[in-house]
Design a protein that fits this description.
This protein is an all-alpha fold and about 220 residues long. The chain is built from nine helices and no strands. It has helices at about 5-30, 40-65, 65-70, 80-85, 85-90, 95-100, 115-130, 135-170, 175-215. This is CRISPR-associated protein Csx27.
């Protein structure tokens, strides 16, 4: 397995593992299902791996349908705003004005005030070009880290709300510790998620600029 596919797998699997952990803890507390697993067993470990992978895929599919929500809470900054705030992209903007018309008609009018939709179109086209040329491994790595942090942020916030409910329901001191843990994870993940998205966009256009200069 190469590095690219490993990053992508972890971005899907780890949120799934986190979700399975939360569900397992809830089940052990309320005893909804009388299931026990021994992760040292090959078959039961494989089953848990499959469940975590399925949960991760489901979460990924759900989050993919919610771009406006993530934008509204600051976890999916518009590409145009990233371009406007990135010194690295501004430095190569003259070159992008030269290269982008090759792939998108009208890109010669490119400015820092271009619409969100226009920059999204540039991003998608450039991503597919680099992917076809096998030049996007670093971009894919940052993209996977971004998805991972975004998913963990959403899950830890949901887990925090669930923990608050359980704390008032049972008044168990353990839930206060879990609440502190989930809130800490959500805050840290929320703070670093925008960084990975920005680096993903920067690396994409930087690699595209370098790729076009070699053509």
């Amino acid at each position: 397995m190469n590095k690219l596919s490993l990053y992508s797998l972890l971005a899907i699997l780890l949120p799934g593992v986190f979700a399975i952990f939360c569900l397992h803890y809830l089940n052990s507390y309320f005893s909804v299902f009388s299931l026990t697993f021994d992760i040292s067993s090959f078959y039961e470990g494989t089953l848990l791996f499959g469940c975590a992978l399925f949960a991760g895929l489901a979460l990924y599919a759900i989050s993919w349908r919610m771009p406006r929500f993530y934008t509204s809470i600051g976890l999916r900054a518009p590409i145009s705003s990233i371009v406007a705030s990135s010194q690295e992209i501004q430095r190569i903007l003259p070159d992008l004005r030269e290269h982008l018309p090759v792939i998108i008609k009208g890109a010669s009018e490119l400015t820092l005030d271009s619409t969100h939709k226009t920059w999204d179109a540039y991003f998608d086209e450039v991503y597919y070009i680099l992917e076809a040329a096998n030049q996007n491994s670093e971009v894919e790595g940052f993209h996977s880290f971004y998805l991972l942090c975004r998913q963990i942020t959403a899950l830890s916030v949901l887990a925090s709300f669930g923990t608050i409910f359980l704390y008032f329901y049972s008044d168990d001191a353990l839930f206060s510790k879990l609440l502190f843990l989930f809130l800490s994870i959500s805050i840290i993940a929320y703070l670093i998620t925008p960084y990975f998205r920005k680096r993903m966009v920067e690396k994409l256009f930087l690699h595209f600029n370098g790729y076009m200069k070699t053509q």
